[in-house]
Amino acid sequence: MKKMRLLLCLVLFATQIHAQDQKMNAFITALMAKMTVEEKIGQLNLITPGSGILTGSVVSTDVEGKIKSGKVGGLFGVIGAEKVKQAQDISMKESRLKIPLLFGSDVIHGHKTTFPIPIGVSCTWDTALIRQSAIIAAAEATADGLNWAFSPMVDVARDPRWGRVSEGSGEDPFLGSQIAIAMVKGYQGASLADKQTLLACVKHFALYGAAEGGRDYNTVDMSKIKMYNEYLAPYKAAVDAGVATIMSSFNDVDGVPATGNKWLLTDLLKKDWKFNGMVVSDYTSVNEMVNHRMGNLQEVSAQSIKAGLDMDMVGEGFLTTLKKSLDEKKITMLDIDRACRKVLEAKYKVGLFDDPYRYIDAARGAKEVLSADKRAFSRKIAGQSFVLLKNEKQILPLKKTQKIALIGPLANDKNNMLGTWAVSADPQLSIPVLMGMQQQSNATSIVYAKGANITDDTTLAKKVNVFGLRVDIDKRTPDAMLQEALSTANASDVVVAVLGEASEMSGEAASRSDITLPASQIKLLNALYTTGKPVVVVLMSGRPLVLTNMIEGATAVLHVWHAGIEAGNAIADVLFGEVNPSGKLSMTFPYSVGQIPVYYSQKTTGRPMDQNNKFSTKYLDIPNEPLFPFGFGLSYTQFAYSDVKLSSNKISKSESITASVTLTNKGQYDGAEVVQLYIEDKVRSITPSAKELKGFQKVNLKAGESKTITFKLTEEMLKFWNADIKFVSESGDFNLLIGGNSRDLQSVPFRLL
């Protein structure tokens, strides 16, 4: 009976969706019949008037005139409901057909209420919390006039030199897929008809995270097998979750730039994956195909639309060349109509044809934007994102009665709390660490000294300060600041050193070849170590850092990424033990830059590492192992794992087995542990990864509590893309591995029949 009711519900739902699609198609067909060729091409034009932070050097010209003449489909970089209304008024009152505009923005980690940067959020390993962050971001952004978020970025990234690792979810395709699903469903909700939801835009399709040398905008060269098995999964997961729009990437794929790659945008995305939404280029990526040596602007614009691109961001190659290409029969009217329909469908789905002003509501904006509940959520998710890397002698949590020397260039700095790509937010509304700690303790017990500049390199500072002051080089000499810091430290019980990157030392166009702490901060830290005081290092960065040259002297290390608008409060919560850290690394921390790329799932080789054999895979000067592995993170409490049990050591292709492990909190604090499940394929027709993450659960336990955790293991989890690019499983022997990180695991064998 239950199955019958479920089937009936599914049939009714499918019928309703079909009717809605028919209604939309009829409306858009009627509208397109009224449009000139020029107006159809105009819908494919996404431009920016230049307010807000740019992602490129080009700013659109004569925006108002183009809107009036029907040459604009959407705008981005317009922040605030009143500005959105002004632009929408032009289209609705002064253009011929009065087609409403789309309004997008880089809502990357919150809108005006900023959350931790995405790599920090990914370290929560809490998909429910991550989904809630997208729900809240969508509610605030739509209350501020927006209806399209250029998020989530789901690029798998394994090179921390690449600045944009800050925008993603790290190195693993499975974790990245789960986060992609959570973000898409959070932004888009149950229905885009709800005006608190907006269009999500998965980016960057595809493989952008594998740019050679970790240098932004660089080329990508990858085999199909690696592509399918290790990089494509998060994009596919987002498509399956119903993402409405997708952004092409800057790089090439199999030698063809993604923006003009027909195999990528049509054969794979639209045909194989059945994606039915809109594809937009990245910022001027159509034009940049000229630099890829694919032809002139007219040629690459024609190539892009025929490849399956629907909307051209900023470059205006579509606007200025497609009519000529049509006249010369280099493209067809079907190409233009297809792209135009996709743009209009996006507008229809968010209700702009019913009410072009539905996202412009002053009363709702006053209630939603920067509301107290949103700031409280930001504080909560930030505390869950921090990763405790070291805690000798259980120095953390701190006692509020201790005399604390709070030292470091990021200890009292509002400008760097938000992190990169907080395009709509005001850094001056953020809570710095000093303020957060003072609010939770006797203010006289905390003494602050800057100690050093983020960097003394004025050339680097100039590059980092392009969007405002991020590196403030003090008028005092470095020695004067250092002596003040040492005096402060010597008069304390414990030192808290807040160090790391400025927010714009990571992010787009912020690749770094040296990902150690700047020399100014290393000098400060080494001097603090000589005082003999315990030193707690609070690290802020947008990427994994090489910490080998500073970690040994630290008593504790807490990595807090860039934690958002409530950074200082969240950091104080964890330092004083109001919150027990539970973050786990979503990206490996290298021992040395020379190891990069280093990630947990690297393949084994024909000559595995053997210290007694010269002719084996190893370095002469450093270990093969990273400093901190994927999935690593300590707690103030201690968790113990029982032996792993399998319901059977054999699995058929039609049945599943269950893996179980009992987790016990053996410490004195309530806490949360991320139980991680990996699979090792012992024999495969293509060389397998060393191990692959296939499941995880975040488990909350009170002190002394135990809980049995179960995972269902199916044949589907054992499949991979073979040499013929077919998704298959192969009978044979496997190991199931369970533990608290990718290194420290229990192994149990089983066999797929």
Question: Would you kindly provide a written description of the structure presented here, covering whatever features stand out?
Answer:
The two termini are 34 Å apart. The radius of gyration is 27 Å and the shape is globular. It has an eight-stranded parallel beta sheet with strand order 9-6-5-4-3-2-1-10. It folds into four domains: 1-34; 102-365, Glycoside hydrolase, family 3, N-terminal domain (TIM Barrel), CATH 3.20.20; 378-586, Rossmann fold (3-Layer(aba) Sandwich); 639-752, Immunoglobulin-like (Sandwich). By secondary structure, the protein is α/β, with parallel strands linked by helices. The chain is built from 20 helices and 27 strands. Helix 6 (127-143) packs antiparallel against helix 15 and helix 7 runs parallel beside helix 9 (233-240). The longest helix has 33 residues, at 2-34.
